[in-house]
Description:
Number of strands: 13
Oligomer: single chain
Largest sheet: 9 strands, mixed
Amino acid sequence: MSTLHVLDHPLITHKLTIMRKKDTGSKDFRELLDEIALLMGYEVTRDLPLEEVEIETPICRTKAKMLAGKKLGIVPILRAGLGMVDALRTLVPAARVGHIGLYRDPETLEPVEYYCKLPNDAQERLIIVCDPMLATGGSACAAIDFLKQRGCTNIRLMCLLGAPVGIERVQKEHPDVDIYIAAVDDHLNDHGYIVPGLGDAGDRIFGTK
Protein backbone atom coordinates (compact mmCIF):
# COMPACT_ATOMS: atom_id res chain seq x y z
CA MET A 1 0.00 0.00 0.00
CA SER A 2 1.26 3.44 -0.85
CA THR A 3 1.98 5.90 1.93
CA LEU A 4 -0.16 9.01 2.40
CA HIS A 5 1.95 11.97 3.56
CA VAL A 6 -0.21 14.79 4.93
CA LEU A 7 2.05 17.86 4.94
CA ASP A 8 0.16 19.97 7.46
CA HIS A 9 2.97 22.38 8.33
CA PRO A 10 1.52 25.53 9.96
CA LEU A 11 2.65 27.72 7.05
CA ILE A 12 1.03 25.39 4.54
CA THR A 13 -2.20 25.23 6.53
CA HIS A 14 -2.33 29.02 6.93
CA LYS A 15 -1.78 29.68 3.22
CA LEU A 16 -4.28 27.00 2.25
CA THR A 17 -6.95 28.63 4.40
CA ILE A 18 -6.49 31.90 2.51
CA MET A 19 -6.75 30.01 -0.80
CA ARG A 20 -10.04 28.47 0.29
CA LYS A 21 -11.71 31.87 0.77
CA LYS A 22 -14.04 32.63 -2.13
CA ASP A 23 -12.95 36.30 -2.22
CA THR A 24 -9.26 35.44 -2.76
CA GLY A 25 -8.46 36.67 -6.30
CA SER A 26 -6.55 34.84 -9.01
CA LYS A 27 -3.26 36.67 -8.43
CA ASP A 28 -3.16 35.85 -4.72
CA PHE A 29 -4.44 32.33 -5.38
CA ARG A 30 -1.61 31.64 -7.85
CA GLU A 31 1.03 33.08 -5.54
CA LEU A 32 -0.22 31.08 -2.57
CA LEU A 33 -0.29 27.86 -4.60
CA ASP A 34 3.28 28.51 -5.70
CA GLU A 35 4.37 29.11 -2.08
CA ILE A 36 2.65 25.96 -0.84
CA ALA A 37 4.09 23.86 -3.67
CA LEU A 38 7.56 25.13 -2.75
CA LEU A 39 7.07 24.13 0.90
CA MET A 40 5.67 20.74 -0.10
CA GLY A 41 8.53 20.22 -2.52
CA TYR A 42 11.02 20.03 0.33
CA GLU A 43 9.24 16.96 1.68
CA VAL A 44 8.52 15.31 -1.66
CA THR A 45 12.25 15.47 -2.51
CA ARG A 46 13.55 14.73 0.99
CA ASP A 47 15.09 11.35 0.07
CA LEU A 48 16.64 12.17 -3.30
CA PRO A 49 19.88 10.16 -3.69
CA LEU A 50 23.21 11.89 -3.10
CA GLU A 51 26.74 11.16 -4.26
CA GLU A 52 30.07 12.26 -2.82
CA VAL A 53 32.15 14.70 -4.86
CA GLU A 54 35.38 16.56 -4.28
CA ILE A 55 35.23 20.37 -4.32
CA GLU A 56 37.46 23.26 -3.40
CA THR A 57 36.18 25.83 -0.93
CA PRO A 58 37.95 29.20 -0.37
CA ILE A 59 39.77 27.41 2.47
CA CYS A 60 40.67 23.92 1.21
CA ARG A 61 39.71 20.90 -0.85
CA THR A 62 37.02 18.74 0.72
CA LYS A 63 34.46 16.05 0.02
CA ALA A 64 30.79 16.99 -0.08
CA LYS A 65 27.53 15.62 -1.43
CA MET A 66 25.40 16.55 -4.43
CA LEU A 67 22.36 15.07 -6.12
CA ALA A 68 23.21 11.83 -7.89
CA GLY A 69 22.38 10.70 -11.42
CA LYS A 70 19.15 11.51 -13.19
CA LYS A 71 17.06 13.83 -11.10
CA LEU A 72 13.43 14.83 -11.39
CA GLY A 73 10.69 14.77 -13.93
CA ILE A 74 7.76 17.05 -13.14
CA VAL A 75 4.50 16.14 -14.83
CA PRO A 76 1.55 18.47 -14.21
CA ILE A 77 -1.94 17.33 -15.11
CA LEU A 78 -3.26 20.11 -17.33
CA ARG A 79 -4.30 22.62 -16.64
CA ALA A 80 -4.40 23.23 -12.89
CA GLY A 81 -1.21 21.25 -12.30
CA LEU A 82 0.74 23.99 -14.09
CA GLY A 83 0.34 26.13 -10.97
CA MET A 84 2.68 23.81 -9.03
CA VAL A 85 5.50 23.46 -11.56
CA ASP A 86 7.51 26.66 -11.08
CA ALA A 87 8.00 26.02 -7.36
CA LEU A 88 9.46 22.57 -7.98
CA ARG A 89 11.72 23.94 -10.73
CA THR A 90 12.92 26.58 -8.29
CA LEU A 91 14.04 23.76 -6.01
CA VAL A 92 15.50 21.61 -8.81
CA PRO A 93 16.23 23.77 -11.88
CA ALA A 94 17.55 20.78 -13.83
CA ALA A 95 14.22 18.97 -13.61
CA ARG A 96 12.56 18.11 -16.92
CA VAL A 97 8.89 18.91 -17.37
CA GLY A 98 6.33 16.77 -19.17
CA HIS A 99 2.60 17.40 -19.55
CA ILE A 100 -0.48 15.24 -19.43
CA GLY A 101 -3.75 16.74 -20.67
CA LEU A 102 -6.95 15.33 -19.23
CA TYR A 103 -10.45 16.62 -18.81
CA ARG A 104 -13.24 15.16 -16.74
CA ASP A 105 -16.36 14.02 -18.59
CA PRO A 106 -19.20 15.93 -16.90
CA GLU A 107 -21.52 12.93 -17.14
CA THR A 108 -19.30 10.03 -16.10
CA LEU A 109 -16.73 12.09 -14.11
CA GLU A 110 -14.09 9.88 -15.76
CA PRO A 111 -10.90 11.34 -17.31
CA VAL A 112 -10.42 11.72 -21.06
CA GLU A 113 -6.87 12.10 -22.44
CA TYR A 114 -6.15 14.78 -25.03
CA TYR A 115 -2.37 15.31 -24.68
CA CYS A 116 0.72 13.54 -23.34
CA LYS A 117 4.32 14.71 -23.84
CA LEU A 118 7.10 13.42 -21.58
CA PRO A 119 10.89 13.82 -21.40
CA ASN A 120 12.69 11.22 -23.52
CA ASP A 121 14.36 9.76 -20.43
CA ALA A 122 11.30 9.97 -18.16
CA GLN A 123 11.64 6.29 -17.24
CA GLU A 124 15.03 7.04 -15.63
CA ARG A 125 13.74 9.84 -13.41
CA LEU A 126 11.70 10.25 -10.27
CA ILE A 127 8.42 11.57 -11.65
CA ILE A 128 6.33 13.94 -9.55
CA VAL A 129 2.77 14.15 -10.84
CA CYS A 130 1.19 17.49 -9.87
CA ASP A 131 -2.49 18.29 -9.57
CA PRO A 132 -3.98 20.59 -6.93
CA MET A 133 -7.18 18.57 -6.50
CA LEU A 134 -7.48 14.82 -5.86
CA ALA A 135 -11.25 14.40 -6.09
CA THR A 136 -12.49 11.11 -7.57
CA GLY A 137 -8.92 10.00 -8.27
CA GLY A 138 -9.78 9.31 -11.90
CA SER A 139 -7.43 11.86 -13.44
CA ALA A 140 -4.55 10.97 -11.14
CA CYS A 141 -4.92 7.24 -11.79
CA ALA A 142 -5.17 7.81 -15.54
CA ALA A 143 -2.06 10.01 -15.53
CA ILE A 144 -0.11 7.42 -13.56
CA ASP A 145 -1.32 4.73 -15.97
CA PHE A 146 0.04 6.75 -18.91
CA LEU A 147 3.39 7.13 -17.17
CA LYS A 148 3.68 3.44 -16.37
CA GLN A 149 2.77 2.53 -19.95
CA ARG A 150 5.80 4.58 -21.01
CA GLY A 151 8.16 2.78 -18.64
CA CYS A 152 8.12 5.06 -15.59
CA THR A 153 8.43 3.15 -12.33
CA ASN A 154 9.40 5.78 -9.73
CA ILE A 155 6.34 8.00 -9.36
CA ARG A 156 4.97 10.26 -6.63
CA LEU A 157 1.70 12.20 -6.57
CA MET A 158 1.65 15.74 -5.16
CA CYS A 159 -1.71 17.41 -4.51
CA LEU A 160 -3.06 20.33 -2.55
CA LEU A 161 -6.40 18.86 -1.43
CA GLY A 162 -7.83 15.38 -1.51
CA ALA A 163 -11.08 13.60 -0.76
CA PRO A 164 -10.98 10.19 0.93
CA VAL A 165 -12.53 8.45 -2.09
CA GLY A 166 -9.82 9.79 -4.41
CA ILE A 167 -7.01 8.87 -2.06
CA GLU A 168 -8.38 5.36 -1.65
CA ARG A 169 -8.68 4.90 -5.41
CA VAL A 170 -5.08 5.91 -6.07
CA GLN A 171 -3.84 3.66 -3.26
CA LYS A 172 -5.88 0.74 -4.60
CA GLU A 173 -4.95 1.13 -8.28
CA HIS A 174 -1.36 2.26 -7.72
CA PRO A 175 -0.12 0.90 -4.39
CA ASP A 176 3.48 1.73 -5.37
CA VAL A 177 2.81 5.49 -5.68
CA ASP A 178 3.11 7.59 -2.53
CA ILE A 179 0.74 10.54 -2.14
CA TYR A 180 1.84 13.92 -0.77
CA ILE A 181 -1.03 16.22 0.15
CA ALA A 182 -1.59 19.38 2.18
CA ALA A 183 -5.05 18.50 3.53
CA VAL A 184 -7.65 15.73 3.39
CA ASP A 185 -11.16 17.15 3.12
CA ASP A 186 -14.48 15.55 3.99
CA HIS A 187 -16.23 14.28 0.84
CA LEU A 188 -17.31 15.00 -2.73
CA ASN A 189 -20.58 16.72 -3.63
CA ASP A 190 -22.96 15.59 -6.37
CA HIS A 191 -20.88 17.42 -8.98
CA GLY A 192 -17.63 15.70 -7.96
CA TYR A 193 -16.18 18.75 -6.20
CA ILE A 194 -14.23 18.42 -2.95
CA VAL A 195 -16.10 19.66 0.15
CA PRO A 196 -15.32 22.07 1.75
CA GLY A 197 -12.59 22.40 -0.90
CA LEU A 198 -11.76 25.64 -2.70
CA GLY A 199 -13.79 25.44 -5.89
CA ASP A 200 -12.32 24.78 -9.33
CA ALA A 201 -8.56 25.22 -8.96
CA GLY A 202 -8.00 25.73 -12.69
CA ASP A 203 -10.58 28.49 -12.91
CA ARG A 204 -9.18 30.19 -9.85
CA ILE A 205 -5.59 30.00 -11.08
CA PHE A 206 -6.31 31.33 -14.54
CA GLY A 207 -9.29 33.58 -13.82
CA THR A 208 -11.74 31.63 -15.98
CA LYS A 209 -15.23 30.31 -15.36
